[in-house]
Amino acid sequence: MARRVAVIGAGAAGLCAARHLSARPDQFVPTVYEQTARVGGTWVYTDRVGTDEHGLPVHSSMYKNLRTNLPKEVMAFPDFPFDSSLPSFLTHQEVLQYLEDYTDHFQLGKYIQFLTKVDTVRPVPCPDRTLWEVTVSSVKEPDKQTTQQFDAVMVCNGHYSVPYIPEIPGTDQFQGRLVHSHEYRSPDDFKGKNVVLLGAASSGQDIALEISTVANQVVLSHGKSSLKSKLPSNMRQASGVERFKPPKTVRFTNGEEFEADAFVYCTGYDYHFPFLTPECQVSVQHGRITPLYKHLIHTSFPTLSIVGICCRICPFPQFDRQVLFAQAVLDGKFHLPPKEEMDRDFQEDFRHRLEAGKAPHHAHEMGEEQWEYNNELSRLIGLDPLPKAVELVYRGVHEERVNNLCLYKKGKYEITGPESWRKVV
Q: Is 294 within 8 Å of 321 (Cβ atoms)?
C-alpha cells in the first residue's frame, strides 16, 4: 500500500517534495498543506506587513524591487531549467512564475490544500512503526478542524518568516523608526533620511544599496571584515551596535555615534515549528535544530524530515537532493545507520563547525560545505552528483559580488558543460 505523506508548505521545498512523491504513485500519496491561497512561499510578494487578511502573520519577506543574488543558472531544480531567455538575476515575479510553472508541469495542484493551516503534528506509536496525526484547520474558519493519519511528514515551512531581533540596550528609548527587513518593502519611506542597517549578509547589503538611492546617509553596521567593494558615496560601514541613546543616537562598538532617523534590523530569522507537539522531540535552541541526521532526518522518528533548513546555499538544487534522500529513507532504498550512530554524526558535524570558528547559531550554515553535503546525499542513495558547473558558477558570482557589489547583477552567465561555464556579459 502506498505511504501517505503530509507535506507542510507549498513553497519551493514543499513543491519539490510533492513533485518527487507524486512521481511514484505506487509508493507515495502526498497531501500538501498550504496556509495561503497560492504556491510560492516566501517568493509571493505582498505589500502587507504584520498580519494578512486572515489575521495570520505575513509569511513573505519579499520586497518590491528584489532581484536574486544568485543567477538562474545555479538556482533551478535539476529537472526543470529556467527559461533561457530570462536574465541571470531574476525578479521575484520571475521566480514565482517559475514555481507556478513547475507546479503546472508536474501537475501538483491536485495534491495541495490551500488556505489550510497545520495546527498540530503528533507521533502515534504503533507496534511496528510510528504514524503521524496531523490536525489542520481552515484559515477562513479556524474552528473547523480535521485530523488525519499519515505514514510520514515532510516539514517544508521555510525559515524566512519569523524575524530574529537581537536585544540592544536603549531600544525602548530610540525615537526613530525601528523595522526588521522582514517588513521592508520599498525604499520610499527612507527618502532623505539617515539610516542605520544592522547586518551585512545578503539582504543587509542589498537593502542598504537600495535605500542609499533615496536616503541622505546610510550606515551598514556589522561585525564582519569590511566589504571590499566600492560603495555609493552616501553609504559607509561601521562596527556593530553597542546601544541606542535618546532620542535618535546609535552608538557603535568602536565608540562612534550616529544620529539616525531609522534603524533596520537585517539580522536574520528564527526557525519556527509551532505545529510540532512536544512529543515530536524537536529541539530548536540558538539557531540549532536537533536531533537531525544530515540536517534533515529525525534520528528518533526517521519518518519525520525537515527540508530546507540550511542557509548560504543554492536552495532549489539542495531541496531536490534532500527530498530524494528522505524519500529513499521512506521506501527502504537507503537504510539508515543505528540511532546512536546518527546522533554521533550530527554532534560531530556541530563540533567540526565550532572548531572551524563558526558561531553556535550557524549550525546549519553551509557556504562552501554545501557541495560535499549535496554530493554525500546523492552518493548515499546512488544518484549522480549535481553538475560541477553549478558550484563553479556560484563561486565565480561570489567573487564578482565581493569585488563589485553595486554592479554584479548586471552580469549574464551560461553553463556550457557539466564542468564549464562562462560570463557572457
A: no
Amino acid at 229: S
**Which residue spans within 255-327 are E strands per DSSP?**
257-259, 262-265, 283-285, 288-290, 292-293, 297-298, 304-306
Single-letter amino acid code for the residue at 120: T
Contact between residue 277 and residue 121 where contact means Cβ atoms under 8 Å apart: yes
Q: 130 CB contacts (<8 Å, ≥6 apart)?
A: 123, 124, 301, 303
Using CA atoms, how far apart are residues 206 and 286, in angstroms rounded to an integer?
26
Q: How far is Cα 343 from Cα 351, in angstroms, rounded to an integer?
A: 12
Give me the residues paired with residue 150 across strands. 132
Query: What is the C-alpha separation between 39 and 45, in angstroms, rounded?
Result: 12
d(CA 103, CA 82): 13
Unique residue bearing C-alpha cell 542597517:
197
Q: How far is residue 285 from each of residues 145, 270, 272, 362, measured CA to CA in Å? A: 30, 10, 11, 11
CA distance 423 to 71: 11
Give tens-digit pLDDT for 68-122: 999 999 999 999 999 999 999 999 999 999 999 999 999 999 999 999 999 999 9
What tens digit of pLDDT does each residue of 156-174 get?
Answer: 999 999 999 999 999 999 9
How many angstroms separate the first and last alpha carbons of the chain?
53
CA distances from 44 to 54, 70, 96, 99, 228 (A): 16, 18, 7, 10, 33
Question: Residue 257 and residue 361: Cα distance in Å, rounded?
Answer: 28
What is d(CA 410, CA 425) in angstroms, rounded to the nearest whole number? 8
Residue 384 is given by DSSP the state P
Query: pLDDT tens digits for 226-265?
Result: 999 999 999 999 999 999 999 999 999 999 999 999 999 9
Helix (H, G, I), strand (E, B) or coil at 362: helix
Q: Are 247 and 172 in contact (CB under 8 A)?
A: no
H and E: helices and strands count for the chain: 8, 22
326: amino acid identity, one letter: A
Q: Name every residue whose Cβ is closer than 8 Å to that of residue 332 and which is 6 or more positions away in sequence.
A: none
